[in-house]
Amino acid sequence: MTMRRAFYIFMLILLCSFAGQAQDISQNGNQVSQNSVAQKVKVFPNPATNVVNILGLKNSNRADIVISDVYGNSLLRYQWQIKTNALNIPIASLSAGIYMVTIISQEQKVQTKFYKK
Questions:
Q1: Residue 105: which residues within 8 A CB-CB, separation 6 or more?
Q2: What's the total number of domains in the chain?
Q3: Where is the Secretion system C-terminal sorting domain (predicted)?
Q4: Interatomic CA distance for residues 18 and 9, integer angstroms
């Protein structure tokens, strides 16, 4: 009987700990909204050769676009207007590899990766 009671107490503590984590995530609405924006972005072609296209962005008068390598070194920088919820970024000058693209504007901050072949 005590073993069964210990099991129920353990399960109750476990469930309470999960409920506490769920509340922390919902209270931090800013972080959740940034993550959901990043999930809706589509990058293609992947792997890319000359241009990488990014769809699902919010239109903006001015966006800072930074392409960096996997070590965080900034390789290309652009400042463009985002129209029709998309960007076409020229990458012909990059070597083959994995890259991160970061797009920062008043409306959003998006970071995603792409492959250059």
A1: 58, 60, 62, 63, 64, 82
A2: 1
A3: 43-114
A4: 15
